[in-house]
Amino acid sequence: MKLADFATQLTDAAKTVDKVMLDLFGEKTLPGEILRPARVTDSMTYAALAGGKRLRPFLVIETAKLFGKEGEGVLRAAAAIECVHCYSLVHDDLPAMDNDDMRRGKPTTHKKYDEATAILAGDALLTYAFDILADEPTSADPLVRVSLVKTLARASGLGGMVGGQLLDLEAEGRFHPDGKPLQLDDKQILRLQAMKTGALLMAGVDMGAIIGGASKAEREQLGRYGRALGQAFQIADDLLDEEADAATVGKATGKDAAMGKGTLVRLWGKDAARKRLGDLVHEAEGALEGFGEKAATLREAARFVANRDR
């Protein structure tokens, strides 16, 4: 597959997921709801539809396709994981966390609105994600819906993304009297990054496998792919933070170095990090061998992650 073809697929999937989210964020209430205040739905929409690659929902869609599954249920699951991702960005950008003013080339949600609205928009995106997954249109099989909810909850919660964000703040020295960054070794950095970033990428792959009815062995293979992809994504992200400019990536760069934050790029050096990045792409591709040509798009996703420029 040519990179241009993959980019088109990614863009087309992003547009489809954006439409699904826009429909889901509408003013019409669902059974059990009383009112959807416009400021909440507006800020949710701003936060979630302000651009982005939509890689996590893309992984849901493409993994489900391995097993011949497409349609409304897949797209709803894809929208759900993107809701969680977007909530995490809204909260990460807050002054109490990363204190960022720009995201995807636009003012962050708390700058566009205010901090209170941004917190509530993030809360709404997070809770709505599980509403989407638990609702029957996502799957007629209640066991599938429960498995999707559990997978996303564990990836995004205290033992996954939230826990990883806490470790990241701790590594910055946020909770220590002297305020000095911790000197993490590579194992500690890998664990932190696997939680903060990798867990949700892995969840996207696993959710597609769940919808597709994958066997235990197939889910294990795809799990190896997801782990390699997640680590590759973070190394590529750290390289961008070191080398790219803010206009290119749509957010502030150089913050890791300014805060003395430990990354594999800073610990190993850029050349060693790039070599590891190439190795991870090969690992991801190798994990998909059993799926043959059906997995061509997922293989290209690993290459895209490693070579992206924003």
Could you give a quick summary of the protein structure above?
The protein is 69% helix and 1% strand. It has 310 residues and is an all-alpha fold. A two-stranded antiparallel ribbon has the order 1-2.
Largest sheet: 2 strands, antiparallel
N- to C-terminal separation? 21 Å
Oligomer type: single chain
Shape summary: globular
Q: What name goes with the CATH superfamily?
A: Farnesyl Diphosphate Synthase
Number of domains: 1
Order of helices and strands: HHHHEEHHHHHHHHHHH
The third-level CATH topology is Farnesyl Diphosphate Synthase
The CATH level-2 architecture is identified as Orthogonal Bundle
CATH class: Mainly Alpha
Number of strands: 2
Instruction: Provide the helix percentage.
Output: 55-70%
Any low-confidence stretches, pLDDT <50, length ≥5?
none
The secondary-structure class comes to mainly alpha
Radius of gyration (CA) equals 19 Å
DSSP summary: helix tally? 15
Strand sequence of the main sheet, in spatial order?
1-2
Q: Name the beta content range.
A: under 5%
Average predicted local confidence, pLDDT = 94
